[in-house]
Amino acid sequence: MNLSDHTPRQKASVTDSTQITDMQMIAHHVWQLSNCFPANLFNVYLIEDVLIDAATRWDASSLLKQLANIPLSQVALTHCHPDHQGAVKQICTTRGIPLACPEADIASMEGHAPMVPRTAAIKIMQLGFAGPAYSVQRSLHDGDEIAGFRVIHMPGHTPGHVMYFRESDRVAIVGDVLRNNHPLTGKIGLYEPPAVFTLDPEENRCSIRKLAQLHPALVCFGHGPVLHDMEQLDRFVDRLPS
Ligand SMILES: [Zn+2]
Q1: In a 3-state reduction of DSSP, which class is residue 197?
Q2: What was the pLDDT predicted at 2?
Q3: Integer Cα distance of 196 and 122 in angstroms
Q4: Of all residues in the chain, what percent carry a pLDDT higher than 90?
Q5: For this UniProt entry, which residues form the secretion signal (predicted)?
Q6: How confident is residue 21, by pLDDT bands cut at 50, 70 and 90?
Q7: CATH code for the domain of 43
Q8: FRET label pair with 63: which of 1, 20, 24, 95, CA 20 to 30 Å apart?
């Protein structure tokens, strides 16, 4: 598929047979849900019939409403943090669908291990945003395939963190490997994830470099708007401390 076939941020009013009201089409068979204000605070994507991430527990009703008439086969996480797993249980139980989670984050998702890193910031975020523990039906590994996207292990932010990459049009859904807004001011721009939320910032930097080496054409973040300007990504990576 050629990305130029689609106007970026086009309002997706109709798919093949389904009415979609609030979602934005960002690439072929990829939509971004509209679940929070301000926009792009906690991003959730739909690729074909798979939901990627589930924002916070406060987003459950909005997400379920937007997905009401949409076929869903599973929820797949980029990683287990409160702002990505928050609505998992409500969505999976309401829709009767399984949860897929990166292998090394499963213990956290199921409540057998704490979310990491064990910083005060994560603990506070858990209190404010996390959803209940929920059992994982599918363990995700590097090289797996979901809805035409390849699962790529990108550790550092959490041990299991993965991204989803579609070779045909080089669309990358990267979770929190990198973000496109400032965590405090919301100013748009590329930033590493905050160290207080990142288990191993150095390893995450390796994952950011790995992302750039894939030469994506469109990058979809857990936080911040999608990025089309890949020169910006290359400049950011060039400036990363070695
Ligand atoms: Zn996040």
Answers
A1: helix
A2: 39
A3: 7
A4: 87
A5: none
A6: low
A7: 3.60.15.10
A8: 1
Q: How far is the CA of 16 from the centre of ligand 1 (A)?
A: 31
Ion ligand 1, residues whose Cβ is below 5 A away? 83, 176, 222
- How close is the Cα of 67 to the center of ligand 1, in Å? 21
pLDDT tens for each residue of 61-72: 999 999 999 999
CB neighbour list of residue 239: distance below 8 Å, 6 or more residues apart? none
| Distance between Cα 201 and ligand 1 center (Å) | 14
Q: What six digits make up the tokens of 113?
A: 């291990």
37 — pLDDT class (breaks 50, 70, 90)? confident
Alpha-carbon gap, residue 109 to 100, rounded angstroms: 10
Three-state SS at 207: helix
Expressed in angstroms and rounded, the spacing between residue 83 Cα and the centre of ligand 1 is 5
Number of domains observed in the structure of the chain = 1
DSSP string covering 123-172: HHHHHHH-------SEEE-TT-EETTEEEEE--SSSSS-EEEEETTTTEE
Q: Tokens standing for 191?
A: 């930033």
